[in-house]
Amino acid sequence: MSTAYLSGFSNHFESEALPNALIKGRNSPQKVPCGLYAEQISGSAFTAMRANNLRSWLYRIRPSVLHSEFQAFSHPYLTGTPFLADYTPPTQFRWSPFPHSSTKQNFIEGLFTLAGNGCIAEQTGAAIHLYSANKSMNNEYFYNADGDFLIVPQEGELLFKTELGDMTVKPTEIIVIPRGIKFQVKLTGPARGYICENFGQPFRLPELGVLGANGLANPRDFKIPVANYEEREGEFVLLTKFQGKLWQAVIHHSPLDVVAWHGNYTPYKYDLTLFNTINTVSFDHPDPSIFTVLTSPSAISGVANIDFVIFPSRWMVATDTFRAPYYHRNIMSEYMGLIQGNYDAKGEGFLPGGGSLHNCMSAHGPDYDSYLNAVNSSLQPEYYANTLAFMFESRQVWRLTSQALQANFRQMDYLACWQNLKPNFNKLTSTLEE
C-alpha cells in the first residue's frame, strides 16, 4: 500500500500490477501495453484549478461501458434528496447502536439513511447513513454517482476491493471512496458503522493557519491502494446510487479489472489514532474545530459544507476551566457518533455504535452527572484514554428521514438527561466575591 499526500490534491500517484503496464508521458497511447483499454475518471470539472483538479487514468481489461441497461433496484432503507423538513423538529435526538440484522445482508443491503441535507443535483450537502452487514459482497459491485463515501467502522474489519486496489479498514480507521469508483466489500465477521455521503466539494485537509506547518492529520499518514486487478467472468450485478435511488445492471465480468493506473483521484484511508491533537495548556475550552480531520468546503469561505471532526484520547490540563464541552447553541448542525470508549460530556446512554443529533441552534451540552463531575472535580492534568468520538458537522440542517424519527432504536427519553439541572444562582456568593 502506498502513501497519499493529500495537501492541495495536486499530487500524482501511479501503480501497476504488471511491469511496464504504464507508459511514461502518454495518457492514451494509440496502443496501450498488454492490449488494455485506457479510461479516464474525473472527479472534478475539466477546467478546475490545477490544485483541485481530480482525475486518474485507468488501464483496464474491459472498458466500463460494458453492462446492460440500468433498471430500478428497490432498497427499503436507502434514500436521497430532497430531504424534507417534515420529520425534523428542533428537538435534540439520540439513538442507541444500530441493531444487527437477524437475516443475511451485505454492505449495500445493510445501509440505513438517517438524515441528509442539500441537493444531489446541485452537488451540495451530505447524507448520514448507518450500515450493518454480516455477509460479503460476492457477485455484486457498487459505485456511487451522487457523492463520496466517508466510511467510519465501529465494529468489524472490512476489506474494500476497489478498481484501484484493495484496502483493509478496521475500527479507529476511516476510508474515503470517491464518487464513481467501483468497489466490493468483504467481511470476516459482523460489521457495523457510520457513513457520511458527501454531495459537495471533495474532502480535503483543513488549512492550519496560525497553527503553522504541523498538527492535526499529517498528510504522510494517508494511504492509497496498490493496483491489483481481478480477471473474472460470470453473471454479476453492478449497483449504482444515482440521484438518490439505487439502480442495477447486468455485467459479465468483474469491473475491478484495472491493471495499472496513475493520477490523483483515488480511494484513501487514515488511522485516526495518528491524529495530532491540539488543545489548550492554560485555560478555557477551545472550539471543536481544532479537531477537524477532513473538510468539504462550501462556496462561502470558512463555512464548511461538511466537517469530519474527532475527539480522540488526549490530555486535558486547562486550569480554572469547565473541561467538559460547554453548554452551547450553534449555527452549524452536529451529528455525533461513538467508535469506542466513553464521551466526556455524556454518561449512560451514549454508546459505541449509537449517535446523537443537535441541529442548528438546538441547545446541548453535558448531562446532569457529567456537569456535577465537571464543576466539583479537582483539576489535575488528566488523560482521556481509550475514547474516540466523532462528529459530522454541516452548515445545513440535518433533516431526518421518517425511518430515523420512528426507529425502534431511537431513545425516546433522551431529554431526561438534562432535567435534573437546577438553578444554582446564589446572590450571597456573588456579594462575597465582590
Plain-language structure description:
- A seven-stranded antiparallel β-sheet has the order 20-13-10-15-8-7-28. A six-stranded antiparallel β-sheet has the order 6-25-24-27-22-21, with no helix packed on it. Strands 2-19-4-3 form a four-stranded antiparallel β-sheet, with no helix packed on it.
- The chain has helices at 368-376, 402-405, 427-433; strands spanning 2-4, 13-16, 37-42, 55-60, 71-73, 93-95, 111-119, 124-133, 140-144, 148-155, 158-162, 165-169, 173-177, 183-187, 191-198, 222-224, 233-242, 245-253, 258-263, 268-271, 292-297, 304-311, 314-316, 333-340, 355-358, 382-384, 388-394, 399-400.
- Mean pLDDT is 93; it is low at 3-9.
- 5% of the residues lie in helices and 36% in strands.
- It folds into two domains: 2-272, Jelly Rolls (Sandwich); 276-401, Jelly Rolls.
- With 434 residues, the chain is mainly beta.
From the alpha-carbon coordinates, what is the Rg to the nearest angstrom?
23 Å
Strand order of the largest sheet: 20-13-10-15-8-7-28
Instruction: Report mean pLDDT, rounded to a whole number.
Output: 93
Give the end-to-end Cα distance, rounded to a whole number of Å: 64 Å
Count of DSSP H/I helices: 3
Strand content: 35-45%
CATH architecture of the largest domain: Sandwich
Instruction: Estimate nothing, just give the exact number of structural domains.
Output: 2
Helix residue percentage: under 10%
Q: How would you name the CATH homologous superfamily of the largest domain?
A: Jelly Rolls
Top-tier CATH class of the largest domain: Mainly Beta
Report the uncertain regions: 3-9
Q: Assign the structural class, choosing from mainly alpha, mainly beta, alpha/beta, alpha+beta, or little secondary structure.
A: mainly beta
Q: What is the overall shape? A: globular
Looking at CATH, which topology of the largest domain would you report?
Jelly Rolls
Main β-sheet description: 7 strands, antiparallel
Number of strands: 28
